[in-house]
Write a structure and sequence with these properties.
The chain is an alpha/beta fold. The chain has 4 domains: about 55 residues, Winged helix-like DNA-binding domain superfamily/Winged helix DNA-binding domain (Arc Repressor Mutant, subunit A); about 190 residues, Rossmann fold; about 130 residues, 3-Layer(aba) Sandwich (Rossmann fold); about 160 residues, 3-Layer(aba) Sandwich (Rossmann fold). It is about 35% helix and about 20% strand. The chain contains 19 helices and 27 strands. The strands form 5 sheets. The protein has a 14-stranded mixed β-sheet with strand order 5-4-3-8-11-13-14-15-17-16-18-19-20-26, sandwiched between helices. A 6-stranded mixed β-sheet has the order 22-21-23-24-25-27, sandwiched between helices. Strands 9-10-12 form a 3-stranded antiparallel β-sheet. Strand 23, helix 16 and strand 24 form a beta-alpha-beta unit. Helix 15 packs across helix 16.
Length: about 575
Amino acid sequence: MTLYERRQTILRLLREQPGIKVTRMAGLLDVSEGTIRNDLTALEEASKLRRVRGGAILLEAPTLPAASADGWDSANNSARQRLARWAAEMVEDGDTIMMDASSTVGYMVPYLAQRRKLTVVTNGLKTAQRLAQDSSNTVILVGGRVSGSGNATISLLGAAMVENLHARTAFVSAVGFDLEAGLTERNIEEAQLKQAMLASARRVVALVDSSKVGQVSTAPFAALEKITHVLTDGDVSPDSIGRLHRAGVNLVICGENTVRSYTVHDGQTRYTIGFANQSEELPFAVDVRRGLERAVNAESDMDLVVTDNKLSGEEALRVADRLIQRNVDLAIEYQIDEKMNNLIMDKFQRAAIPVIAVDIPIVGATFFGVDNYRSGHMAGVALGQWLEANWDGCFDKAIILEEPRAGSLPAARIQGQLDGLQEVVGLVPEDKQIFLDSGNTSSVSEALVYKTLQACPDMHRFAVICFNDDAAIGALRAARALGRESDVVIVGQGADRLVRDELRQPDSRIIGSTAFRPEQYGQHLLELALKILRGESVPPAVFIDHVFINAQNISRYYPEHEPEVPLETFEVFTP
């Protein structure tokens, strides 16, 4: 692994496993602890991370200067970046959006990096420059007089330009936000331009940190009824929350550890559901969370509190305490560490809170998720059939990327793949099986597969089965880094976004993945939760349907250009 590749892998490890220690990184990358420390020092000097005792933490790097279009200082950057992160989740590939020139909205830019083919209308010069660096984006800069700070265009010249433009969503911030005055600005020309931009948007999302709530400035530009959603931080006062909720505002409060949504319907809020997500760094888990958000908005009057377990059993225990403190009526627990499940369940049982366990069973909770053995078996059979057709059924080693923390039931996913493979190619002797702990992340899988391939320079046929798609992506990256893609054939589990993108590539060495359809979890989870809360009878386990996705059928199950979602089904953002 080159110096650059090793340091990029370190950054991925820190992103996927916050708190990972130097000793663990050294073992995964097969280098000395001194080498890792030197790498961390170099990355710290490059402002990529900050060294801490025993390891390092990634730095949040804002992409825009901490100043708005009219030059006022931007305090409370951490809170504003949280608002920007959650706001960016409301943007889909191919969207047409408007973004004002405020620093808060500007912080959305790095979180839009994974979106493609956006049309962005903005009066922010730096926002335009940075989004235009992605050639798939179309960026329209609103003309007008340049502000004194040089960060934005303002004046009514730009207002005339946006009259005939139409956007799905406008993202704006303001100097002040008040129930009576709405959103207000100091600069009259800027307020007039923002007013014109919002008139062309189907929905308006206001990002206002708590210091702005209750404040009124010179020029109003958006009345309360024009604003579709308000995102603010956890320091907003309870009195302000109550008044905004009573006024019919769709409110999202982005705290440091939890995010709570107040969704407005005609009736009264009936339930509060807590969702402890597995990790906000895993595409599959993010899709599960977003599907639940959409379902909550579409189906029922309720609050949704979302937290992040960060792939850590210890963090999951702390998260359970937070949900109990929030007085949730039901908890949906997506947690990887089986050893912690009894402790977590005991906390909820003592608080008389029913629990739904997603994909990883918890004794005493209703299970929802993967039919592990069946899903694995489908992938194993497909792998065997590929081997028969392309390698005459022969291979040197079977690399098995497992996840021991998840327990016996998810382990059936691995056993199903082995059984399905052996049904096609015959018995795979134990000396041909290499078991590796995937760590449930692409970075750990990449490091371990890299070492395994390096240790076998004379072998050129590796069949790889995986606990999930993150492991599959990691295995593929390792083979690519060594220039040995043709030596591997890989099947995944989940068919998440990254693997679907890979399956669309010609001659990909990931030949397919059993689809779990995480985007559909939310609707099923909500239906199950409501039955439990209403006291209706539910089975102890509810399994999803599976299909094996490959290059031949991916367009049928996941069209590359899906039609735009109708306005009435847009999700209320409740990350």
